[in-house]
Write a structure and sequence with these properties.
Arc Repressor Mutant, subunit A; 16 helices; 2 domains; disordered C terminus; 5-stranded mixed beta sheet; alpha+beta; disordered N terminus; single chain; 7 strands; 354 residues
């Protein structure tokens, strides 16, 4: 599975939100690091009173800006990394309790995958498989949120702590990947996660062993889970936007493209929908799954071809084609030219004058 930085998406209509529980403990950390909390919140476009209840909604762009501004104000670039490492799963609020009250780690991650839209909008969260290794991927796909390094680092730290709830404090991932470029003090990341850390990838992701999924959650509580499920389902229903659904599906397809092509049923499961309900929503949005799959492959192909060092055979593999010839035929149908010719044209373009 090759992961490289992704391409921008079309703007969505409503700004995405995140529940205030995701900022639990942020003010204490900012103070410890010498930051002026009111100034940091003001520059991020948020108010301290926004954190008054864990179910308050924060503007996701403001939430991401909060930690970026804190890093600047405290002159501590790894403030998001530290925040995530210290963050307890229960402090995530209902989505955190959905995880820790599940019977196994597998159920915990699936429940988070299904209900993540109730916690945070315009975000991909899901499991991917690659040659026996599993990846938990996370990516904000609203293009209006450009500054999100701190959010990525704190979020993967939070998610690793869910693994540690089941597997013990000494558990470590196989590898960590981030979509942002490598910072100056990147060795701190490898120390924090206890694993190799790669930067400049297509998404933010945690690699782990399949057998990890069998671990029991020590705080499993079926009654608690049954209590919070109606709230999560209502929140998910409120986040539904027919005009944006096609974008959500296309992003999930792009995220899960690899040596295999995600099926309609697989994407429906990721979004927590029965197949028939998923197809009805596609119809209401005026699109077909096959068209979204084609669009996702086309967009990723153009992006991959902009990297002169990425072999065409690898691009074909990453788009779900078993052979380079099949990819070449599809690309010619999309653009009227071969991948090789398109790449040569792109490489010459900077030298052309008007």
């Amino acid at each position: 599975m090759a992961i490289a930085s992704d391409i921008p998406e079309t703007e969505t209509i409503a700004p995405p939100k995140v529940l205030a529980s995701a900022a639990t403990g942020a003010t204490d950390l900012f103070c410890r690091r010498g930051g002026d909390v009111e100034t940091i919140f003001g520059r991020a476009g948020l108010r301290l009173t926004d954190l008054g209840s864990p179910v308050n909604e924060l503007d996701l762009k403001g939430y991401c800006a909060l930690f970026e501004e804190a890093a600047t104000a405290t002159q501590y670039d790894n403030i998001g990394l530290e925040f995530g490492q210290r963050f307890l799963p229960k402090h995530l609020g209902v989505i955190g309790y959905a995880a820790i009250s599940s019977p196994t780690l597998a159920a915990a991650l699936r429940n988070m995958e299904r209900y993540f839209p109730a916690h945070q909008g315009q975000t991909s969260f899901g499991l991917l498989q690659d040659s026996g290794v599993l990846w938990l991927s996370y990516r904000i796909y609203d293009p209006r949120i450009a500054r999100r390094r701190q959010d990525a680092e704190l979020s993967l730290g939070m998610f690793c702590n869910i693994f540690k709830s089941a597997l013990g404090p000494d558990w470590a991932p196989l590898e960590i990947r981030f979509e942002h470029e490598r910072p100056g003090e990147y060795h701190a990341h490898e120390k924090a996660f206890g694993a190799p850390v790669r930067f400049g990838r297509r998404t933010n992701a945690i690699a782990f062993r399949r057998r990890d999924l069998d671990a029991s959650m020590p705080q499993q509580d079926p009654f608690l889970f049954s209590v919070i499920t109606p709230f999560l389902e209502r929140r998910c229903a409120l986040q539904e936007d027919p005009e944006d659904f096609a974008t959500v599906v296309r992003n999930q397809i792009k995220l899960h493209l690899g040596d295999t092509i995600p099926t309609l049923s697989e994407i429906a499961r990721i979004l927590g929908l029965p197949d028939q309900a998923f197809q009805r929503r596609l119809k209401a949005s005026g699109v077909a799954f096959a068209d979204l799959l084609k669009a996702a492959r086309h967009e990723l192909a153009l992006h991959y071809l902009s990297d002169p060092d990425m072999p065409l055979t690898e691009i074909a593999y990453c788009l779900g084609y078993s052979e380079l010839s099949a990819f070449s035929r599809a690309f010619r149908n999309w653009t009227g030219m071969s991948p090789q010719r398109y790449r040569r044209t792109r490489q010459r373009r900077p030298f052309l004058t008007a």
